[in-house]
Amino acid sequence: MIRVKGSTVMVGAGLLLLFAAAGLYAHYFGPADPYAGTAQFVVQPNESVEKVAETLRAEGFIRSRTAFAIALKKANPHQQIQPGGYELSASMDVWSIAGALSQPPAMVFFSFPPGWRKEQIADKLASVLNWTPAQKSEWLSVDTNLSPSFVEGVYFPDTYLIPSGETPAGVANMFVARFQQQFAPYASEAQAEGLQWPDVVTLASLLEREAAGAQDMPLIAGIMLNRLHKHMSLQIDATLQYIKGTEGNWWPMPTAADKSLPSPFNTYLHAGLPPHAIAEPGLGALKAVLNPEKTDCLYYLHDPSGQIHCSATYDGQLQNVNKYLK
Q1: Which letter does DSSP use for residue 294 in this model?
Q2: 68: which strand partners?
Q3: How far apart are CA 225 and CA 202, in angstroms?
Q4: 0.90 cut: is pTM over it?
């Protein structure tokens, strides 16, 4: 009887330990909230696995960073999580969350800098979103429902989180919406300055390609406006690059012969602004157009170090050429 009793006690203690272990396992590896709905979880570029685990815990998706590390090592031996947006839920157990984060994200990061032309953006979009040539072509021909003057220049340079299955039109509308959000507050300012809004965007695109840096933008904007007011041709080399650009080299180095290229975008042959913007300008260029530096200069150049030099006369420009470029 004593032995039986001892065996019963041992079995009972073992069951208690088993239940306790199961409870601990469920607490750390089970769902953090069985009734939670789905939410977006974003992994930032270059974010460490440790940081991802801490954010998961802080946002209530998991209870234990250690449990997540164990599950991730099982699901993803290389411990690599792609940046982007994932659809997760606190009702998922740690194993399911680790598995979901080991798959390609539902939303991917996409960014482009000021000064890119539409075709450059299309090239990168096709690569990042795995578009077919037909999808890329569709994106290039999307009607943004803006004026014909906005064929280019209305995709705001920024970082976006794009659904991996988004349509070309959806992506274009996303970029245009950000443009309208960021630039719209300046439209009334342009009107107060007596400037047409499409002209401001076009000028900003020229400035974005011409300036060596943000510090040059107000001066070059002042020079361009001076030339426009005097009905002089702008003579912007970037417009020649826009005419000549082809896939693989969208901004080729212009030559003297290019100044005779037959194109309405050739600002050496035609006075005034080109038909539309040549690139996507950023806020810095837009602000410089609306707040140009007051100057008598009509000409400018950059020396080999990138320093800008300007002159009010053509003779002064020739002197600067001989001084800084020869």
Answers
A1: P
A2: none
A3: 12
A4: no
68 in helix, strand or coil? Answer: helix
**In three state form, how does the secondary structure of 133-177 look?**
HHHHHHHHCCCCCCCHHHCCCCCCCCEEEEECCCCHHHHHHHHHH
Per residue in 289-319, pLDDT (tens digit) is: 999 999 999 999 999 988 999 999 999 999 9
Instruction: Report residue 11 as tokens.
Output: 């079995």
The CATH T-level fold of domain 25-100 is: Dna Ligase; domain 1 (3.30.1490)
Domain locations along the chain? 25-100, 108-183, 194-324
Q: CB neighbours of 306 closer than 8 A, spacing ≥ 6?
A: 212, 213
Question: Count of residues for the chain?
Answer: 326
Q: Which long-range contacts (CB under 8 A, 24 or more apart) does 72-81 make?
A: 72/98, 72/101, 72/102, 74/98, 75/99, 75/102, 76/101, 76/102, 79/49, 81/43, 81/47, 81/49, 81/52
- 24-38: string of b/e by CB count within 10 Å (b at 16+)? eeeebbbbbeeeeee
